[in-house]
Prior knowledge:
The chain is α/β, with parallel strands linked by helices. It has a single domain (25-203), classed as Nucleotidyltransferase, domain 5 (2-Layer Sandwich), CATH 3.30.420.10. Helix content is 35%, strand content 18%. The protein has helices at residues 11-18, 82-85, 98-108, 119-132, 145-151, 163-169, 180-202, and strands at 31-39, 49-58, 61-71, 113-116, 142-144. A five-stranded mixed β-sheet has the order 3-2-1-4-5, sandwiched between helices. Strand 2 and strand 3 (61-71) form a beta hairpin. The radius of gyration is 18 Å and the shape is globular. The N and C termini lie far apart (45 Å).
Amino acid sequence: xxxxxxxxxxxxxxxxxxxxxxxxxxxxxxxxxxxxxxxxxxxxxxxxxxxxxxxxxxxxxxxxxxxxxxxxxxxxxxxxxxxxxxxxxxxxxxxxxxxxxxxxxxxxxxxxxxxxxxxxxxxxxxxxxxxxxxxxxxxxxxxxxxxxxxxxxxxxxxxxxxxxxxxxxxxxxxxxxxxxxxxxxxxxxxxxxxxxxxxxxxxxxxxxxxx
Length: 211
């Protein structure tokens, strides 16, 4: 009765899953990983990851030394999206296999809260890669800066805010826009601004549930 046996996963995934057990850190000690993916398109069921970029926030400060940037080798390619992200199928950028990129990413985000702008898309892209590796979905708690911005406002708002719009609103210079690492950094700056606004609005120490 092989179907009754518990499914086993590789050591790197088990270490990732174990990193969330017993986690109840105060907010200042929480490690937020802000991340972004550049992809071959906008359909997680068909498109693939071309790059992953991250930046870490801890104690509400950006730690650029604790970051990850990797480019992924893919045979499937969409020439139309090159105009956006600038990643060529060939070229001088060192690329790694998707499986290796996901392993590096899982190790990097152990025990962390993930942050991204319109995070559902980036998480769906990572989860599809995990599915191709026959692994479960991401286990991290998630924060969407698009939704977080709406929490800082006093009125209900159903607007879909782009990263460009919010950077312009908060006078953030958009260096390296449409690179995974560049967009992760811009999102990290926005996250800190929104956290400060939330703290002022609530007039108390923030909790993870506020995010």
